[in-house]
């Protein structure tokens, strides 16, 4: 028997589908052996074969089915939107690596690329997806065909203009997209959304619908000013979602703390909003090296300073989360916002 097993080898040994293995990892993490990190990849211990077979048997008894079908999860994934006031602050890198850390921490995670003009999650992950979220609007593509297998077991939804293009789509196209997104929400535990930078209307609408917002800051004055401008616009439109900050590319802990405190104080004093800092990412040459190799940082260099920083951010976010099952859909809220705007525009036109 091999010393360590890949997920493909584990699937062959247990007779379980890879998707089912990932489901059991998220639902029964405490009953399974920890994965082993070797090089840049995580592997299963041979003991995992028996452990997964036992979990599968118990799951089948509980669900009343031994055919390996996954019982529908009741509730929706936690949708965390990662945004910034300007580009070039490392937003996409953070979103992808954060999703990978959630997956490693036992949460079934997806990352949705909702950057309208600079969709690049697939490039950072080193994959070439066959479809994007836009294909759900244009075709009858099954949801299962859309989610691409990313590094470390994370699912990647190559969105591009898909999600924000809903503002210009027909009612039937929206229903099709919403149906697909709700399926994803019901079969994942965390969805990290990489939004476009800036403060466009589509970005603001989606941020208001997400469960939580992470604003990526740097010590650069324009980064802080633009992030504040975005937050102010959201506040004026009735923002009611928790807002967190992450300070990226910090050269010292003192600098990171100073940036976070200044931003939080401005948001509190002038906007009446609380912005909780959930961590920082130190400037690290490994980030550029990983990007050049089209490999996520925490796969390329899991022991790098920045990788450990992102792991700590994921842990902090899980601590802030409510463990109760979330019974409403962020994507449904987004759709409702669009419907309300349509209704207001029609009334204005009639007037």
Which characteristics define this entry?
351 residues, 2 domains, alpha/beta, 10 strands, Rossmann fold, two-stranded antiparallel sheet, eight-stranded mixed β-sheet
The overall strand count is 10
H/I helix tally? 15
Low-confidence stretches: 61-73
**What is the CATH level 1 assignment of the largest domain?**
Alpha Beta
Structural class: alpha/beta
Strand content: 5-15%
Mean pLDDT: 83
Strand order of the largest sheet: 5-6-4-7-3-8-9-10
Provide an overview of this structure:
The chain has an eight-stranded mixed beta sheet, with helices on both faces. The chain has 351 residues and is of the alpha/beta class. The chain has helices at 7-14, 18-27, 48-63, 91-104, 121-125, 134-138, 143-146, 171-187, 201-209, 221-236, 253-271, 285-292, 297-300, 305-320, 330-350, and strands spanning 36-38, 41-43, 78-83, 109-114, 148-149, 155-157, 190-195, 212-217, 243-250, 275-282. Strand 9, helix 11 and strand 10 form a beta-alpha-beta unit. Helix content is 49%, strand content 15%. The model is unreliable at 61-73 (pLDDT under 50). It contains 15 helices and ten strands.
């Amino acid at each position: 028997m091999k010393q360590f097993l890949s997920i493909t080898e584990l699937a062959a040994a247990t007779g379980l589908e890879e998707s089912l293995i990932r489901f059991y990892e998220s639902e029964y993490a405490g009953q399974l052996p920890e994965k082993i990190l070797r090089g840049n990849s995580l592997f299963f211990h041979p003991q995992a074969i028996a452990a997964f077979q036992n979990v599968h048997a118990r799951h089948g008894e509980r669900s009343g089915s031994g055919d390996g079908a996954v019982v529908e999860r009741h509730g929706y994934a936690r949708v965390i939107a990662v945004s910034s006031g300007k580009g070039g602050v490392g937003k996409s890198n953070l979103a992808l690596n954060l999703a990978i850390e959630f997956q490693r921490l036992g949460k079934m995670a997806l990352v949705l690329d909702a950057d309208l003009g600079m969709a690049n999650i697939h490039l950072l992950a080193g994959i070439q997806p066959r479809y994007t979220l836009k294909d759900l609007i244009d075709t009858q593509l099954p949801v299962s065909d859309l989610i691409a297998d990313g590094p470390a077991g994370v699912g990647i939804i190559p969105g591009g203009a898909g999600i924000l293009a809903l503002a210009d789509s027909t009612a039937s196209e929206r229903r099709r997209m919403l149906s697909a997104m709700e399926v994803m929400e019901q079969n994942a535990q965390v969805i990290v959304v990489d939004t476009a930078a800036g403060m466009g209307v589509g970005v603001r609408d989606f941020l208001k619908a997400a469960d939580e917002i992470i604003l990526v800051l740097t010590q650069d004055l324009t980064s802080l000013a633009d992030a504040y401008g975005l937050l102010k616009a959201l506040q004026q439109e009735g923002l009611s979602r928790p807002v967190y900050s992450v300070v990226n590319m910090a050269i010292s802990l003192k600098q990171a703390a100073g940036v976070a405190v200044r931003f939080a104080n401005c948001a509190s004093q002038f906007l009446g909003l609380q912005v909780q800092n959930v961590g920082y990412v130190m400037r690290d040459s490994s980030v550029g090296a990983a990007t050049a190799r089209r490999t996520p940082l925490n796969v390329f260099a899991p022991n790098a300073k920045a990788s450990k920083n992102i792991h700590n951010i994921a842990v902090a976010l899980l601590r802030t989360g409510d463990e109760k099952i979330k019974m409403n859909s962020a994507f449904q809220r987004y759709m409702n916002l669009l419907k309300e705007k349509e209704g207001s525009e029609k009334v204005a036109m009639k007037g």
